[in-house]
Design goal:
Blueprint: E1 8-11, H1 18-31, H2 33-36, H3 41-44, H4 46-55, E2 68-76, E3 81-90, H5 95-101, E4 104-108, H6 117-131, E5 136-142, H7 146-154, E6 158-165, E7 170-178
Antiparallel strand pairs: 1-2, 2-3, 3-4, 5-7, 6-7
């Protein structure tokens, strides 16, 4: 299947895309089980899952959690397919986000990997991060994930260092992307 990148956009999670998201999750269950865990709750109660994602982007007076998380889906409206999920987190607080997680984390559905969609999704997310007031974006990748590292570098990522991530249990390449008024 040929993918026309101009038909793709980042959209906020919505109930209207239930079937498309279900297909996205099924793809993970079939081809990348370990990374499907964070999407499985959507299968039990999709409306609550969507509400939970939206709550994560709203400051709460009732929580000590200071980091907000804005969720977006890489969606193709022509074939009604969700190719990926990307999260923008800010401010970076706590050891995990500062060392291992970073400002941006993303997944591409296994069936759509190695087609340039990760790069497209990260490029589309950078202006959104800038709109949220982030000027220096931390993006991380497993040290041996050369494809993810190439995506980050293609989007302007400059290697800061490689560290051992005690929570994830592996070496992590940490990149910074400096944002300005204009995106690359």
């Amino acid at each position: 299947m040929t993918i026309n990148f101009s038909d793709c956009q980042l959209v906020r999670p919505t109930l209207a895309l239930h079937e498309a998201f279900e297909a996205f999750v099924d793809d993970f269950l079939l081809y990348d089980g370990p990374n499907s865990n964070e999407y499985i709750p959507s299968m039990d109660n999709f409306p609550e899952y969507i509400r939970a994602l939206h709550r994560q982007s709203q400051p709460s007076r009732h929580s000590s959690e200071a980091t907000l998380c804005h969720h977006f889906w890489l969606y193709n409206s022509i074939n009604q397919c969700i190719y990926g999920v990307i999260r923008i987190r800010h401010p970076l607080e706590g050891r995990f986000l500062l060392t291992e997680g970073g400002n941006i984390g993303y997944h591409i559905a296994p069936s759509y990997r190695n087609r340039g969609l990760g790069k497209l999704m990260l490029k589309l997310a950078l202006p959104k991060a800038h709109e949220l007031g982030i000027e220096r974006v931390l993006v991380t990748a497993k040290e041996d994930n050369l494809a993810s590292r190439a995506i980050i570098q293609a989007c302007g990522g400059q290697l800061e260092n490689v560290v051992y991530g005690p929570i994830l249990g592996y070496r992590i390449a940490r990149y910074f992307i400096h944002l300005s008024g204009e995106q690359q």
